[in-house]
């Protein structure tokens, strides 16, 4: 078995704090698909999310036009969120590497169950930060005490008073 | 920190801190009791997200409540699990544990030495749901393999069984369960996560009656189901409730959508929502307080209990003592492996003189309380055959370690010399012909 992936809270917090716009590859227009859940949550948290999926191109997902390919996404992309199986992930990562300069891609995040160690190594060599086999919704919720509301083990212990932001 | 930093803090630290950071709005350091039923939505879209399970948050306290959630996270942390679901009692937890994947016509295997109330719940009440239980002597784990049927969905045992000082071979049982593609469910009530860590040995779900050592002071009835998050519910077609579209959520597939959080999400969003056996916030608070001192209490409970067990073993009016910490116990080796910090504080002994003597001893105690509970700071005593195990047949009673001569004690935190003196005087008084305290 491949070794367990370890990402420190500081690393994940850093990524989720710096990123503003996310291209979600494999986004689905069906409301009960996992990718739809994640996209809706990330939008609520103030991220810009662009759905990327050739089969849904032209449709709107959560009011945002779905784009066929990463290259066609208008404007900058801070993070590519990969909602495709491990084999397909390799090609998406290579596309992200190729677009790194023009789009400003700084992070490739592969969803739970998606892992491609070779592609991750290529991305890291190109200066891109990588997270695999995790979900940005779950990690955002975990790092902000929201996961705990559902009875989950956040593994976070702190006696500091958390800042509550007023928008 | 995530994943492998899991044990960065020690057990005692997590006992006090897990799940309970300072309340961010006021800075209150002790966990507030959210004595509250319902939670205001930001707007209609937020409400829709919550009802669709698309975002985290509170809707209504039958499903989730902040004080209860704090307790859930704390127990999940102590068991090293992914998530926990607290509920109204230990028995409610047992229903919640099976509910996500059991259908009418399904079966499971359980130890024949469970707490008597569990034997009744499984054998009688579960039958009305169409859930069938096969009770097996799990001392020989191969018996479990023999008893497997195609419709078997789980194996259920107690780590340390109530009442009898019986320890289950969790590792062997987990292997058999996993070979069969079903989860091992462990009732860890008697051991608590301080003495036994079932997930380390391959268990997949843990249930607790928090009524006992976790709350610890005999204040609150409560229960909990903890999910390890490591069982693959999609490895076969047995767990459709978690893998197939859920009609109550417009065809959502829980395992696909929530991954290792599926079981706990389902237990709240479907289990508690529709079974309704919710834990009261006040009871959650009492249990959080209890857990803050769990390790200290369990150390003293175990030390006192072992001393009482030794004393009784040498007593002329006592036939035998069943405590897994004694060299005479056939479970001594298993206890060393699974309960390295102590073999618990609840055990049984057999009095010379059978049923009548058992009843008299219980009635002759001054300090021990005669009542039907375990895991209190006070020492407790009971004659199972005439009380907790009354509903069982003679055969079931003997199998469960609750024959006519059996007395059960739950040893508390009093001065141990006083406990020895009380038991001694009760035994002497009970043995006097025609005369005892109740007459
Ligand atoms: C080992 C064990 N499991 C389950 C239960 C049931 O718990 P509750 O009484 O909280 O429903 C008990 C209670 O006596 C118990 O001792």
State the domain count of chain B.
2
Number of strands of chain A: 7
| CATH class membership of chain A | Alpha Beta
For the record, what is the CATH homologous superfamily label of chain A? NAD(P)-binding Rossmann-like Domain
Radius of gyration of chain A: 16 Å
Can you give a write-up of this model?
- The complex is a heterodimer of chains A (167) and B (439).
- Chain A has 167 residues and is α/β, with parallel strands linked by helices.
- Helices cover 33% and strands 15% of the residues of chain A.
- Chain A has a single domain (9-150), classed as Rossmann fold.
- Chain A is built from 6 helices and 7 strands.
- A 5-stranded parallel sheet of chain A has the order 2-1-5-6-7, sandwiched between helices. Chain A has a two-stranded antiparallel ribbon with strand order 3-4.
- In chain A, strand 6, helix 5 (117-125) and strand 7 (129-131) form a beta-alpha-beta unit.
- In chain A, helix 3 (86-98) packs parallel to helix 5 (117-125).
- The N and C termini of chain A lie far apart (45 Å).
- In chain B, helix 1 runs antiparallel to helix 3 (66-78), helix 3 runs parallel beside helix 12 (281-291) and helix 6 runs parallel beside helix 7 (170-179).
- Chain B has helices spanning 11-17, 44-51, 66-78, 90-98, 116-125, 141-147, 170-179, 192-195, 240-243, 254-258, 262-275, 281-291, 294-313, 332-338, 354-364, 394-399, 416-431; strands at residues 83-87, 107-111, 132-136, 152-158, 160-161, 166-167, 184-187, 205-209, 223-227, 318-322, 346-351, 369-370, 380-382, 406-410.
- Classes of the chains: A alpha/beta (167), B alpha/beta (439).
- At the A-B interface, helix 2 and helix 6 of A face helix 1, helix 3, strand 1 and helix 11 of B.
- Residues 89-91, 115, 117-118, 158, 162, 187, 189-190, 209, 211, 221, 223, 374 of chain B line the site of pyridoxal-5'-phosphate.
């Amino acid at each position: 078995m491949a070794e367990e992936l370890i990402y420190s809270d500081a690393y994940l917090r850093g990524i989720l704090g710096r990123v503003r716009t996310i291209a979600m590859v494999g986004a689905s227009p069906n409301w009960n698909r996992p990718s739809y859940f994640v996209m809706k949550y990330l939008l609520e948290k103030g991220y810009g999310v662009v759905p990327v999926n050739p089969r849904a191109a032209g449709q709107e997902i959560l009011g945002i036009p779905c784009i066929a390919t990463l290259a066609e996404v208008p404007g900058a992309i801070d993070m590519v969120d990969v909602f495709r199986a491990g084999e397909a992930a390799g090609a998406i990562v290579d596309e992200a590497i190729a677009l790194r300069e023009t789009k400003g891609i700084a992070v490739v995040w592969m969803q739970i169950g998606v892992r491609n160690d070779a592609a991750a190594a290529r991305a890291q060599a190109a200066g891109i930060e990588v997270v695999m086999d995790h979900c940005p919704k779950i990690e955002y919720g975990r790092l902000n005490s929201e996961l705990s509301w559902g009875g989950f083990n956040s593994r976070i212990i702190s006696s500091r008073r958390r800042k509550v932001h007023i928008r | 920190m995530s994943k492998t930093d899991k044990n960065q803090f020690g057990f005692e630290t997590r006992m006090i801190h897990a799940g309970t950071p300072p309340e961010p709005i006021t800075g209150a350091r002790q966990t507030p009791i959210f004595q509250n039923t319902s939670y205001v939505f930001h707007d209609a879209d937020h409400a829709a997200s919550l009802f669709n399970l698309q975002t985290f948050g509170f809707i209504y306290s039958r499903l989730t409540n902040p004080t209860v959630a704090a307790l859930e996270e704390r127990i999940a942390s102590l068991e090293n699990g992914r998530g926990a679901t607290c509920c109204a009692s230990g028995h409610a937890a047992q229903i919640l544990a099976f509910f996500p994947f059991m259908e009418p016509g399904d079966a499971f295997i359980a130890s024949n030495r469970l707490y008597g109330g569990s034997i009744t719940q499984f054998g009688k009440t579960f039958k009305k749901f169409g859930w069938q239980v096969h009770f097996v002597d799990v001392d020989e784990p191969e018996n479990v393999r023999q008893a497997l049927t195609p419709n078997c969905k789980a194996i259920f045992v107690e780590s340390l069984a109530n009442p009898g000082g019986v320890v289950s071979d969790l590792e062997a049982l987990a292997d058999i369960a996993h070979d069969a593609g079903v989860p091992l469910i462990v009732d860890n009530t008697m051991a608590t996560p301080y003495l036994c860590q079932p997930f380390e040995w391959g268990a997949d779900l843990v249930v607790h009656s928090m009524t006992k050592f976790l709350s610890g002071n005999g204040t609150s009835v409560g229960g909990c189901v903890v999910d390890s998050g490591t069982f693959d519910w999609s490895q076969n077609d047995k767990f459709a409730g978690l893998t197939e579209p859920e009609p109550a959520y417009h065809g959502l597939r829980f395992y696909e959508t929530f991954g290792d959080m599926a079981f706990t999400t389902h237990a709240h969003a479907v289990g508690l929502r529709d079974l309704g056996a919710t834990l009261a916030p006040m009871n959650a608070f009492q249990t959080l307080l209890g857990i803050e001192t769990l390790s200290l209490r369990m150390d003293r409970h175990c030390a006192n209990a072992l001393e009482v067990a030794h004393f009784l073993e040498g007593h002329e009016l006592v036939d035998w003592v069943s405590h897994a910490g004694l060299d005479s116990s056939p479970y001594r080796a298993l206890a060393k492996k699974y309960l390295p910090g102590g073999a618990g504080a609840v055990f049984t002994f057999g009095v010379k003189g059978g049923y009548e003597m058992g009843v008299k001893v219980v009635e002759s105690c001054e300090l021990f309380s005669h009542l039907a509970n375990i895991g209190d700071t006070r020492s407790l005593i009971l004659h199972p055959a005439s009380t907790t195990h009354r509903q069982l047949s003679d055969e079931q009673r003997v199998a469960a370690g609750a024959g006519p001569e059996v007395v059960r004690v739950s040893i508390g935190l009093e001065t141990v010399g006083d406990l020895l003196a009380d038991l001694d005087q009760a035994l002497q008084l009970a043995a006097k012909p025609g005369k005892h305290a109740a007459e």
